[in-house]
UniProtKB/TrEMBL annotation:
Keywords: Aminopeptidase, Hydrolase, Protease, Serine protease, Signal. PANTHER family: PERIPLASMIC PEPTIDASE SUBFAMILY S1B (PTHR38469:SF1). Catalyzes the removal of dipeptides from the N-terminus of oligopeptides. Pfam families: Peptidase_S46 (PF10459). This is Dipeptidyl-peptidase. Residues 1-19 form the signal peptide. InterPro entries: Pep_S46 (IPR019500), Peptidase_S1_PA (IPR009003). The keyword Ribonucleoprotein does not apply. Belongs to the peptidase S46 family. It is an enzyme of class 3 (hydrolase). GO terms for biological process: peptide catabolic process; proteolysis. The keyword Signal applies.
Amino acid sequence: MKNLKHLFLFLFLCLNAVAQQGGMWLPNLLKGDRETEMKNLGMKLTAEQIYSVNKSSLKDAVPQFDGGCTAEVISNKGLILTNHHCGFDAIQNHSTVEHDYLRDGFWAYKMEDELANPDMVVTFVVRIEDVTSKVLEGTTGLTEADKQKKIQSTIAELTKSLPKEAWQDNLIKTFYDGNQYIRFVTETFKDIRLVGAPPSSIGKFGSDTDNWVWPRHTGDFSIFRIYADKNNRPATYSKDNVPYTPKYFFPISIKGVKENDFTMVMGYPGRTQEYLPSYAVEQLVNTLNPAKIEVRDAALKVQDRFMRKDQAIKIQYASKYASIANYWKKWIGETKGLKKSNAIVEKQKFEAALTAKINAAGKQSEYGQLLSDFEKNYSAIRDYALARDLFTEVVLRNTELLQTGYKLYQLEQLYTNKGEQAFTDRKNTLHKGIDAFYKDYNNEVDKNVFEQLIAIYAQRLPKAFLPSTLENLNATQMAQDIYSTSALTNLEAFRKMLEGDTATVLAKMNQDKGYQLVKSIADAYLQKVAPKFDELNLKNMATQRTYMKAIVELSPKSARIFPDANSTLRVTYGKVKGYKPTDAVYYEPFTTLDGVMEKYVPGDYEFDVPQKLIELHQQKNYGRYANTQGKMPVAFIATNHTTGGNSGSPALDAEGNLIGCNFDRVWEGTMSDVFYSPEICRNIMVDARYILFIIDKFANAQNLINELKIISPKKKK
Ligand code: ARG
Ligand code: ASP
């Protein structure tokens, strides 16, 4: 009996140890429970070393990279590390058929050779503070719509007025669905140069087949450098700028980690929705994800067909293809994972338990309606949400001609609503991005994409929302008509169309068949879908806020209720750990270069391996970077809770040394944005030793190796 009791206690502790993981926490709020938990998992740092207001701390070495990714500073001359897929656009922009840096890689062996990227930015967080009461001031008693308006204007006002240095910015973001507001003082650097990138056969090894999959063998990293003005402050590109001197940079450890070792990741996770009700998850699984997947599936098939037979098209579409494919595949994995983990049923159980707590606390009048409100609203919004996703995917996202046409549509709207001056201003900014757009545009590819996508749009859109132009659609004929005549199909014609006074430009636009179609689709969407969607969505957001409040209020103080991701700086932590993807299968947490060679398919567009790397593998020429078994580590996984935006994030060991660069999650755990499970959700990181090995042995960029602070294991005496 006593033994049984011990066994139960033991099991309970084990379960708790697993269940404790997950969560993306604000770095300024780690003191207390989080710090204790991290120390129990093996961390040797203090919360103050991670985030400090007065001293330099780890957070000073973790900027957001170009809006969507994360990077980490790794030298005192502003060198930063991020993913290959985060630098991909920049690498692609510098590439031509003759100098194909995507294919061959790029290395600057001297600072003069580093390549400038005009629009790239890197943003550091200087300090973080709670401004909830300031933001919510004067909102009690207002209707929901007025309340949101007031909040938006207060945020805009505070963003300007809260004290900061001239070169800094204020950023105010909501946490817990509108229950908390936090201010970030930031510094954005604008002269960021490309320093190094491996060939895609390393940096993108396994490409889309291996994307979101473990075991993984991708050397997904690239290197940039931050430049600042003479005072070490942000400045736009100038040849007089100097390498940035950071407040902190990460030493890189080549000691290696073992399964169950502590690890943490800092970065800028973009968006999670961990507290959605069951009704929303059901809609995601059965209606929204399938529609988005169908659209992207069709677009990808067309692009792939063209890219395979033409190298120039391959370069033009590589980046676009990769980004369409990325979420296409993620939604497939997410849908599967949500089904397999019974997320809807689990959410229902959670809701039943919450209802019981609401009743027990006598809070029926405040919280008693939440779930029935959700049920009503999610059922009402379904068709509108579907229409919105289809519009976004077909028009705004995946058909290039419609995408450009929509910019002109907004231009005309601006004229109608705001007049001549607004029209002219926008027209002038439109010119800017358009060269880059047409550089990577191929009319045949897009025509074929259009033909597929417009047919899906006409078929899947709820009939009540269909514009008359798409009734009885002949997609082939329509594609032919538009793509052989529209000015949206090439740069010269596009520019010509925008020449002349406002009336002339508008007249030309409205005679264009491509524009006419965009206009009819957009009009129908904006009249029949958007207003009702916004109205219902606002209701759902208000309900979600109260729901979140109820969850926080009715949970014990010790509950780990982490805020959803919102592109702000977070810390997530856990252990290096394998997992069981299916019955009878266990995935170990480390991969090696041997596995790269096992996957090698000569000449294949996804699994080719550079000759030099094959030789280094044959000679086992791994220098000081091999693991204790004499193998070259490539990637590893852990229980850190990450999401899109965490790409490029530093993976740190118990001492805070860099041990890897985060770049993905495992297939079985891609549902973690909606339903995190510590059993199967894992983040994937490139091992820092592989990164150093590629820089040192493969690229022979000793200039870079010499800049780094590398921590080696102590030699055994
Ligand atoms: N899945 C990873 C993330 O969401 C990596 C994507 C880049 N690779 C690719 N093959 N598209 O961004
Ligand atoms: N690959 C993602 C990114 O680009 C990371 C993830 O979704 O796990 O941020």
